[in-house]
Amino acid sequence: MLRVKRTSVVLDMLVFGMAAALFLSSAVFRWMGEGYITTAFYLMMFGIIALDVGAFLHSAFHIYRDVHFLLFVFAYNLLLLGRVYFNSMYFPHKMLVALEADSWDNLYTALTVVATGLLAFIVFYYAAGPLFAKYERQIVRGQAERKKENGTLPVIRQLSKIMLYASSIPYFYTMALKVLTVLKNGYSASFTDTMEIPGIISRLSAVFVPSFAVFLGTLPSVKEMKLPLLVYGVYMVASLFTGRRNMLVTEALMLLVYFVMRDFRRAKGKRRITKKVVAFCGIGGVLGAYLLQMMAYKRAGNFILTRSFGDVLMSFVDSQGASFRVVIQTVNNMPSFDQNITWLYLLYPFELFAHNNLVIRNLFGLQPIVEVQNEGFAKSTHNFAHVLTYKVDPQRYEGGGGFGTSFIAESYVAGGIAAVVLLAIMAAVLFRFLSSILAHNWVVIAFGMLAFRQLIYLPRSFAFTWATETFSITNIVYFAALYAIALLIIQISAKVRPRTRAPSVESLPDSKSPTTEIIGG
């Protein structure tokens, strides 16, 4: 029998009902004409806030299951709406200039597009529950914890550790080259300068992150995780010296989700993530945001220690919310896009994969794609980040600057609101699947962890980078090779150390009819 918590139902009706009323009121004011569009904009914004509160309160009753969902909702608000919230509080009189909107009509349209994506994601995340209810029940009942390891799992765990350590050396070497480029020529140069890396080093470094994902997928004990976590932690911290903050953040969020899900598999009395731990994580997150923003000041040559703690945090929200610029500039420049090819912007990750994969390139006679920031590339590519930045500011583009991209902007320019809803539904189903990922085998867990690193960054990323980066030929071949080697090792071990043989017929007592005794036994 389905049990429904009355408190949860009442809160859902109140908060989600308030969000629906605000969205409806916003639409009514927008319909009333240009004189009411400012009111419509703010009603839409408060409707989004009410929707966020409703999602948090509803998932608070299922926090272990929905932790990754809440992180995405938070990331969506920070990356796509942080700048909107910041300027609504501090510069409401300069909203159009601050948000780079050509008109209030465009600003309202951009906010509507973002709100539609968030609404579709939240609604369909909850609606997709029945699709994965079987595996979620296994987690709740602790069935996943009681599953015995098969023979290959310990071997795969050891192989992944060996490969993690072996590939860490070439991986850190390639990262050191990136750091030197940034230190020598500046942060923007890392996007325009190219580096020559020997093939063997490039191939070995490519399995560093997948090796760690496989290791996590085998569900090792805390003791077994210490050294691999230390090695991976060095990579996470070192990534900051490349000037990119997102690598550290996405990896940290992946580990957070993984350990919360692992904790959910334990009995309630044995769980290690307590309210005290959550409070420390919250404080750590705030301090982390402060330090990341100070790093951004340093990178921009604007480092001042006298800034107040609150000002730095608000600047962090404003800077992270820069992805709204992608959406508003998409709306501003909609008439200039060739509608016959806009759908190709969504498929660019697949195009890049096909052109740069040696086998596919040779089979179909394709030319490799080398991403450089110049006029020729901007006018010929389907990379939406390059196309949009060049349309808006050619000088900034050729100087190494850029707006980046967003799956919301890409889907809107490709197919309007309908495409935004479809892409949001895709994300919702993927995140709902991740809620029960630990009920599956090591392959699914490893691919899931790799995908999460990309999915959590969707508001500031290409729509399908998660697919090409996760299910790359390198990862698929590597996982298959690990499994094949594990099977081979097990077979060799069985021959070297055969199992204890059954006692001979002569040693059996009263063996007048040995054949009958053996068959009957």
UniProtKB/TrEMBL annotation:
Keyword entries, A-Z: Membrane, Transmembrane, Transmembrane helix
Domain of life from the UniProt record: Bacteria
Residue intervals passing through the bilayer: 9-29, 35-57, 69-86, 106-128, 200-219, 248-265, 277-297, 412-431, 438-456, 476-494
Record flagged with keyword Transport: no
InterPro entries referenced in this protein's UniProt entry, alphabetically: O-ag_pol_Wzy
Pfam families membership: O-ag_pol_Wzy
Name of this protein: O-antigen polysaccharide polymerase Wzy family protein
Species per Swiss-Prot/TrEMBL record: Caproicibacterium amylolyticum
